[in-house]
Automatic annotation (TrEMBL):
Belongs to the phytoene/squalene synthase family. Keywords: Carotenoid biosynthesis, Signal, Transferase. Gene3D superfamilies: Farnesyl Diphosphate Synthase (1.10.600.10). This is 15-cis-phytoene synthase. It comes from the Eukaryota. It comes from Diacronema lutheri.
Length: 363
């Protein structure tokens, strides 16, 4: 798995080989195995966290909450620097809640990114992680990183556990398959590993006056799909070297591109036409998501806007590299990311003025 995509309607996105909208009615649940909750350490270059197998008691919880929020902040700042800067435009309670969600997603992704055993063991560990999630939703915390999420669930009662379960299901998909027959199949995967983040964070981010949660859901899901499709296109070569092809098999056939060609990294006219088609579709999802930014609460728009703008640039880089995503990695430099923030901020204000809603930074 490669990471989080972005925290979705946010932009805590992940690289492709990992988590990559499906109608809400299609969300499948995950059966929780009756396994012991694991003491899952966080494999982070920012911090090291020790978990216990028993919930923290009341005295430890109160002392650990502030520490937990700080750890979640450091995790977000370490793994999602540009997004983290965007969260600094948010009201502090919302920013802390977003960091808590991101930290859970980061740890979830780490289970697959840094497995401690074979596939059989990994499946047991994922099942146990799902069981631990249920316990968190019941108000139990097993370390200081769990605790902020417990508090966030309490503060935002409309937050659903289902997207978290669906993300775990996306992890299982990556263990079970390395090919996708159709775009519908890939779309489900993208929802589970990326679209879910929009549903996780939307209750925290809030909506603009006069906008319902339901009206904001579809744009959030569309952004998650766009971000993950971009990750997939950026990482075609890297995935191929791992024996994985996320490009739908029926579309490979339609454009005259074989799996063997992708695995060998052969760039020809057919492959270029395939990439042009894939990039156009990703851009269509970005377009669908863009109008939804002004539907969010004003203080929550910046990280979303910045994520959208930066990931669009990755598509431009793929084109600029002559569509050679086998050998050339499309990326946006740290300087470009930093310089993009004020531009994204101005776009937020302009879009809000056109829509008649409060501009970003007005709250």
């Amino acid at each position: 798995m490669r990471s989080l995509v972005a925290l979705v309607a946010l932009g805590l996105v992940a690289p492709s080989g990992s988590m990559r909208s499906v109608p809400l009615a299609a969300f499948p649940g995950l059966r929780t195995a009756a396994l012991a909750v694991p003491a899952q350490p966080l494999r982070s270059r920012a911090v090291m966290i020790a978990s216990t197998d028993t919930p923290l008691d009341g005295s430890k919880r109160s002392a650990a909450l502030a520490e937990g929020y700080e750890v979640c902040r450091k995790i977000t700042a370490s793994y999602a620097k540009t997004f983290y800067l965007g969260t600094r435009f948010m009201a502090p309670p919302r920013a802390r809640a977003i960091w808590a969600v991101y930290a859970w997603c980061r740890r979830t992704d780490d289970i697959v990114d840094a497995p401690r055993g074979g596939v059989k063991y990994l499946k047991r560990e994922i099942a146990a992680w799902s069981a631990r999630l249920e316990r968190i939703w019941e108000g139990e915390a097993f370390d200081v990183v769990d605790l902020p999420l417990v508090e966030t669930v309490k503060q935002y009662p409309t937050m659903s556990i289902q997207p978290y379960k669906d993300m775990i299901e996306g992890m299982l998909m990556d263990l079970k398959q390395d090919r996708y027959e159709t775009f519908d199949d890939l779309h489900l995967y993208c929802y589970r590993v990326a679209g879910t983040v929009g549903l996780m964070t939307l209750p925290v981010m809030g909506t603009a006056d006069g906008v319902t949660y339901e009206e904001a859901v579809e744009p959030a899901l569309a952004l998650g799909i766009a971000l993950q499709l971009t990750n997939i296109l950026r990482d075609v070569g890297e995935d191929a070297r791992r024996g994985r092809i996320y490009l739908p098999k029926d579309e490979l056939k339609r454009f005259g591109v074989s799996e063997e060609q992708v695995l060998a990294g052969v760039l020809d006219e057919n492959y270029v036409r395939l990439m042009q088609f894939q990039i156009a579709r990703a851009r269509d999802y970005f377009d669908k998501s863009e109008d939804g930014i002004s539907k969010l609460d004003a203080s929550a728009r910046m990280p979303v806007r910045a994520s959208l703008d930066l990931y669009r640039k990755i598509l431009e880089r793929i084109e600029g590299n002559g569509f050679d995503n086998f050998r050339k990695r499309a990326y946006v430099s740290k300087l470009e990311k930093f310089m993009q923030l004020p531009l994204s901020y101005m776009k937020c204000r302009e879009a809000a003025q056109l829509s008649g809603r409060a501009p970003a930074g007005s709250q």
